[in-house]
């Protein structure tokens, strides 16, 4: 399916200043190349569409092969269809800022740079990878890869995208899968060979292939991560949710796929989302009530009574010794959750916060005990007790 070109809102009366007049000639390292290019790109996008106007062709940070590749994409799409995304941004809209996530040196002359693009009012970045190559003493951008596989979310998305492209019963489904640990590969292949007709697919936890999937980060640590995978099927507005766990050695790999969601996983997701949105407002000096104004992010995971109590607490002018959700004054880097007790309908979950104590070290502190109940098919927090 051919995509269409998104034309950003620009002022046609503005005169394009040649890029070569705005940029230095070349970069001394991969980060300088990426930062230099995207600094210019964000500035130029406020006045023109660099893709539509062809301004990228003058960039001192792009290799000739990169420029030719974008030219070919535009020519293939044609004037009546266009591209459905900006090939340099991996998005339809222009982000408000960029951050370098990590830099992986592939060879002495090649590197992969993870870039995070942040959009207004969304604390979750759009991640993509920029390949950079050293040529004649200068580092140049050689490719932009929208499907990144450097983060846990990117690995999970890439794996399920690959899996959904396979034909059920194809040879690819009887071989070793990409992005999975050897242990999980072995368990899945054993389950596939042993299952009887009508049993669910061990990767999808269902008999049918969904139309598409969405991946949401629950928690990301130094060596482990947890994702929600939501599978969407025709005629059913409610997705099937799976829990995917990853481990990191030299790269992120999927180590376990769990059919369904445990109460402690729901609690971990809720708290880490709360931290993400709260920090987003604090860094921008925005005075907002997190429970009320960001309710769409976690409202489905709190009971009606607890939500009403928290809204009343935040609306009150009475002084608070700590955040009533985090049970702390300082915001942890992330939280982990552990089930203390659980039955089919209720659970008690302990929330522990991780606070940075060094460049790659953390100190753990018990924050809160949660009471949770299963309402329909969804685990919800019904009470928060601060302290151990």
Q: Largest sheet at a glance?
A: 4 strands, antiparallel
* CATH hierarchy: architecture of the largest domain: Roll
Biggest β-sheet: strands ordered side by side in the sheet: 1-2-3-4
Q: N-to-C terminal Cα separation, in Å? A: 55 Å
Reading the helices and strands in chain order gives HHEEEEHHEEEEHHHHEEEE
List the helices and strands and how they pair.
Elements (H helix, E strand, L loop, with lengths): L29 H16 L18 H14 L19 E9 L4 E10 L2 E14 L2 E8 L6 H14 L16 H13 L17 E9 L3 E10 L2 E13 L3 E8 L3 H21 L6 H4 L1 H4 L5 H12 L18 E9 L3 E11 L5 E14 L2 E9 L2
Antiparallel strand pairs: 1-2, 2-3, 3-4, 5-6, 6-7, 7-8, 9-10, 10-11, 11-12
Structure characteristics:
4-stranded antiparallel β-sheet, Nuclear Transport Factor 2, Chain: A, 388 residues, disordered N terminus, globular, 3 domains, 8 helices, alpha+beta
């Amino acid at each position: 399916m051919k995509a269409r070109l998104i034309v950003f809102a620009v002022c046609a009366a503005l005169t394009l200043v040649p890029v070569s007049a705005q940029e230095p000639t070349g970069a001394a390292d991969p980060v300088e190349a990426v930062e230099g290019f995207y600094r210019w790109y964000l500035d130029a996008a406020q006045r023109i569409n660099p893709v539509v106007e062809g301004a990228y062709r003058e960039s001192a940070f792009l290799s000739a092969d990169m420029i030719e590749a974008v030219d070919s994409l535009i020519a293939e799409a044609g004037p009546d269809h266009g591209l459905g995304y900006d090939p340099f941004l991996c998005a339809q809209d222009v982000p408000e800022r960029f951050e370098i996530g990590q830099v992986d040196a592939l060879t002495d002359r090649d590197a992969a740079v993870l870039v995070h693009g942040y959009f207004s009012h969304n604390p979750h970045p759009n991640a993509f990878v920029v390949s950079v190559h050293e040529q004649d003493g200068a580092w140049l951008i050689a490719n932009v890869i929208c499907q990144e596989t450097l983060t846990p979310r990117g690995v999970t998305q890439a794996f399920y995208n690959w899996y959904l492209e396979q034909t059920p019963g194809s040879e690819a489904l009887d071989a070793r899968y990409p992005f999975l640990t050897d242990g999980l590969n072995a368990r899945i292949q054993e389950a596939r060979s042993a299952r009887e007709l009508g049993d669910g697919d061990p990767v999808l936890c269902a008999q049918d292939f969904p139309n598409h999937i969405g991946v949401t980060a629950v928690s990301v640590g130094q060596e482990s991560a947890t994702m929600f995978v939501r599978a969407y099927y025709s005629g059913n507005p409610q997705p099937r949710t799976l829990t995917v766990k990853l481990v990191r050695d030299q790269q992120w790999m999927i180590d376990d796929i769990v059919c369904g969601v445990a109460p402690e996983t729901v609690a971990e997701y809720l708290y880490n989302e709360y931290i993400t949105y709260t920090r987003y407002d604090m860094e921008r000096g925005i005075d907002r009530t997190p429970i009320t104004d960001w309710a769409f992010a976690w409202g489905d995971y709190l009971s009606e009574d607890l939500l009403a109590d928290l809204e009343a607490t935040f609306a009150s002018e009475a002084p608070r010794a700590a955040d009533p959700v985090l049970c702390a004054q300082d915001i942890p880097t992330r939280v982990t959750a552990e089930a203390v007790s659980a039955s089919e309908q209720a659970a008690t979950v302990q929330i522990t916060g991780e606070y940075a104590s060094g460049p790659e070290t953390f100190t753990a502190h018990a924050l809160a005990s949660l009471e949770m109940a299963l309402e329909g098919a969804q685990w919800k927090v019904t009470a928060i007790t601060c302290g151990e």
